[in-house]
Amino acid sequence: MRNLINFRSLLAALTLGALLISWLNAGYFGMEILAEIAILALLAMSLDLLAGYTGLVSLGHAALFGCGAYAFAVFTAFWGWPPSLSMAAATLLTGLIALIVGSVVTRVQGIFFIMITLAIGEMGYELVFKTRALGGDDGLAGIPRLDLSVIGVDLNDPGVFALFLILLVVVCYLLLKRLLGSPYGAILIGLHDNAGRMRALGLPVQRYQTSIFAFSGAIAGFAGTLSAQHTMFISPQLLHWTTSGEVLVMGILGGLGTLIGPVIGAALITLLRHELSDLTDYWGLWLGLFLILVVMGGKNGVVGWLETGWNLIARRSGDRKSSDRSANDAAG
Amino acid sequence: MLTDSGFWFVQLLNSLQLSMLLFLLSVGLTVIFGLMNFVNLAHGSLYALGALFGYSVAQATGNMWLAFLIAPICVMAVGALIYVLIIDRMRKAGPMKQVLVTFGLIFVFLDAQRYFWGTDQLGVTSGIPFAGSFELFGEIYPSYRLFIICVGLLVFAALYLLLEHTRLGAEVRAGVDDPETASCLGVNVERTFFVVFLIGSALAGLAGVVALPAFSAEAGMGVSILVPTLVVVVVGGLGSLKGAFAGSLLIGTTLTFGQVLFPSFASMLMYALLVAVLLIRPSGLFPARG
């Protein structure tokens, strides 16, 4: 197991390296794609906390993402608050809404959890879609970016903005990794594996599920404020359940419950979408087939494949030393 | 307008007609759900396929009745293909992975439908049976919509007889109730599930082709109908014919009258209803398992 955790840190470092190298070589359009990848990576990591680690598959996560984006837009464009304050307020507000929603939805499990998050998320979508004051189906424009000119950083430059987002992804990854390594993280994984046994051990299951729903929602809201700053335009599509579905697909392709998997998934899917949509009008067909193959393959996405390969290599080199220990490692 | 009885009667017929379409779609989904404990998210895509196959048959032959017959059979064949290629192999993978695989199928179907039928709205104009209309309380109403209601009621009656009075029906009920015991008692649960999956697919196709003359067909129609269908299944109670029927009536009525009374918030009403049912009565209105 230790072997695997180290391997994941190695993967994370490699992913960061790949992002930085592409940042060095990216033109204007490449910077836009990198920024998109970083925002989706944040969102996918937050969903991984819920779906991958705690076993709560939510199809309403995009609604929280959109909530952060719309709250940021209202605070800055309508009320004239400074972007930094608006980001904090929007993140907090989304976390608060997620706390309330979480205390309700965690009363049901399994497929019912999927349905109730879908329903509540769609209610949010409908609300925004039909509210003229929020721009309705036209969306909202004229959203400013964070102003960091006091430290000499101009976020309106696409390259600087992309690097800023990549940095945020790194910080968020490290914080979440720390969180998941803590006793709290162990509780989350326990809830995923066997919620009934955790309850029998005396754990207030629903309270923990609600807390992670709220925390994950706050990160999604934070990603939403960044998305609003990136495109400077937002539309109700951000909240739609198909957006949640796409983010879930990113997690699955990359490997749920690995934290780095969703980042890799977000990068792969965003790249493929931009590359393949030039080559074919039917890129969804390939994405769907790919998804089916990954799920049917039984491994945990890209990270799962790489780990299997890594274990094979580790076992082969271990055979020469001590065959006993490496077999244990492979099994773990 | 709001005090006009003819207007309300027309709305009542509209809500019945939507309810019957939802019923045709949800009944297959709910029984598969009850038997196998897994949700086929691609069920809406089969509905779209039914409409598109129906369109092609109607274009080729000019005969809508032939389309009503052939389209469900074609959709059933596609259903068999999905079952053999994917679902059968995913039997032991757990419900979550099965849901994800069918989620992938949505993408595949959507683009395949775009490839073969394009992205335009496809309507059938000639050869439609009951193309006329009739007058009720001073309102003109198309006869075809009454036909949709009749098809729904007929299918409900047929399925009721099938479930309650045939050997297959008894096996399905036993399988929904307790698959392990049923299988110990010599019921071939695997085969039963396959047959149910085929019937469910054919009914989704039938719903699509029956809806075609009233609404026209397009590649994305399967995704937009999926969510109301899932709501019906959960509200009605998993695995139950009666639940699918009652849930369809409830959701069809909510959507239609919600559209008239609160035009902005019709679908919000539906979601609120779902949340309320899940919190107050999580097993649905008429659960098949007690």
Automatic annotation (TrEMBL), chain B:
Keywords: Amino-acid transport, Cell membrane, Membrane, Transmembrane, Transmembrane helix, Transport. One of its GO terms (biological process) is amino acid transport. GO terms for cellular component: plasma membrane. GO terms for molecular function: transmembrane transporter activity. CDD domains: TM_PBP1_LivH_like. The keyword Transmembrane applies. It is a multi-pass membrane protein. Pfam families: BPD_transp_2. Belongs to the binding-protein-dependent transport system permease family. LivHM subfamily. This is Branched-chain amino acid ABC transporter permease.
